[in-house]
Amino acid sequence: MGSRILTMKRQAAELGRIRTGYSRPNPDASKGPIPVKSKTFVLTSHSRNYVAAAAELYGGKVEQWTPQRQSVAQWRVITEARELGAILPAGDVLNQANEMWTGGGCERRCDGITESISRKPCICLAKYGEDWHTRPPTQVCRPTSRIGVFLPDLPDLGVWRLDTKSYYAADALAGGLDTVLEATGGKGLLPVRMWIEQRAAVRNGKTKQFQVVMLVPALPKLRHALSGPISTAAALDPASLDRPAIEAGPVVVPDYAAEARLCKTVEDARAVWHRANRAGHVDPKGTDALSQELIRIADDIATGIDTQTGEDHGDDEPGPDEDGVYDGEVIEDGDQDDEPPAAYPPAEWPAAAVPGGGR
């Protein structure tokens, strides 16, 4: 049996990134690339195969690309997709922090109260007040949200990480995800829809344009998102949750009366009734029509009436021959099988179903 390092995170392999922007060359060669907001999703990966599969699925052109402040080339596709269908893994998959990055790496990572690298209170809040997030990123941290999702129509098992540094997206992502986690407990997979939404806000008399990544459960009805975990099959095909269930076929009831008419003894006929009772096909009190019919058949057997033809053979006992001798039936060993089958042992009739009481 295997063992694990308990302090290690158990994460699925990261196959690539989902981005909402890209960069283009700066006309001024002395300056860095110019960031561009994208109206469609941008997918990047170290693997050309993954990006090529994404381009085939979502449109766009595969190209080689080197991220800013990095030297290792990757692959990317600026897709034509304004919306992506994805699946959230189980658990709380959202990772958020206020971060400041420079050429030397991450200088600050704060949860809004404590800056974890220096172990000091939030530096941005202390210096600029509650509206610190309205200042340029050269002065303050940026609210950074990361969330890993499965893209079920792309190859291999692993997550694609969505990164956004939007203050408004951070709030929207956390609020929507927390609502679902409250209902599901983070158990099971959840299908989601993601899209880039363009918004505007007015501050100090000026209108600011920005974009937000929206992420909502992709389920036929809200009740499906709030009624607990769903199956993996439903996560892959959410529409199945709203399909009517397949109706069960008609219940086939054995012809108990025909079986009873083939019985030779009252005990055999009684065993047929008890089998019907165990199957729930008769009233335990014996007042239903089938019970009454089985009682009549048992009465016929008891009085010598042929249950197939209705003829009365009760007084048809053969008499003696001309020498005064009665014919006798020879029963050989091994043929004495008049007892009820072992599977249906003799048992008491219900009070209302005693043979003789139905005539």
Strand content: 25-35%
Low-confidence stretches: 334-346
* Average pLDDT score: 81
Helix content: 10-25%
| Main sheet properties | 8 strands, mixed
DSSP, total strands: 13
Order of helices and strands: EEHEEEEEEEHEEHEEHHHHH
Radius of gyration: 40 Å
Strand order, sheet with most strands:
3-4-2-1-11-10-6-7
Overall geometry comes to elongated
Alpha plus pi helix count: 8
- The SS-based structural class is alpha+beta
Amino-to-carboxy terminus distance: 72 Å
Descriptive report:
This protein has 359 residues and is of the alpha+beta class. The protein is built from eight helices and 13 strands. The strands form three sheets. It has an eight-stranded mixed sheet with strand order 3-4-2-1-11-10-6-7. Strands 5-12-13 form a three-stranded antiparallel sheet. Helix 7 runs antiparallel to helix 8 (289-303). The longest helix is centred in the middle third of the chain and has 18 residues, at 167-184. The radius of gyration is 40 Å and the shape is elongated. The relative contact order is 0.09. The model is unreliable at 334-346 (pLDDT under 50).
Task: Name a few traits of the molecule.
eight-stranded mixed β-sheet, alpha+beta, 27% strand
Give a brief rundown of this model.
Helices cover 22% and strands 27% of the residues. The protein has helices at 48-58, 123-128, 167-184, 222-226, 232-236, 256-261, 266-278, 289-303; strands spanning 14-24, 34-45, 62-65, 74-78, 83-88, 94-102, 105-110, 114-115, 120-121, 142-149, 159-164, 190-203, 206-217.
